[in-house]
Amino acid sequence: MKPSLLLLALMLATFVVAIANADDYTAAAPAPSSEAEASPPSPPPEASPPPLAPLPSVTSSPPPPTSSPLMPPPPPPPPPSVTTSPPPPPPPAVTSSPPPPPPPAASPPTPPPSPPPPPPSPVKSSPPPPPAWSPVTNVNDYTIQQVGKFAVQSYCLNTGAKLVYVNVVSGQTQPCSGGGSNYQLVINVAAGVRTAQYSVFVWGILGTTTWKLWSFTPKN
Fold this sequence. Notes:
single chain; 3 helices; rod-shaped; Cystatin domain-containing protein
């Protein structure tokens, strides 16, 4: 119960007790006499209620709440939430950047690459020696006679000389690697009434018209 209600109840009880005391005082008064009946009765003195005693100041704490067997006690109020601001962040650490690396030392200029060595020249093998000369064993051979006549005719056509083929005195032959054969002959040639000898050098291929006179010189 609240203190104000308790104080009001005490005051109401005191007021009821005062009214009861006043009624008792009025009943105890003597009855009026006959003489007094003729005269109107004087009004009784007013009885003042006794002074109220000062109410003691009662400070009553509220009764503890009765716990109901069916309901659990209310949970305690949550503690007040204390909001703490986070501490300020620490100042950033001052990191000194390392000094820039020194520039690389100037390296000497790289010499240009040497040119590749020239490819090895193919080994030039010396040509095989020419075949050996073979002496003419039969100066009257038809082929040998035709070579002598060709030499005189070619010389006369190129120079305009008036020579007549007579015969073959001697000679030698040599086969050529490229084909054909070389002929070196000593022939007799008539110039008018006089006869002279010439040394001729002819190359040709038998059975063809491919022939050539290399030299036609008088023999001393």
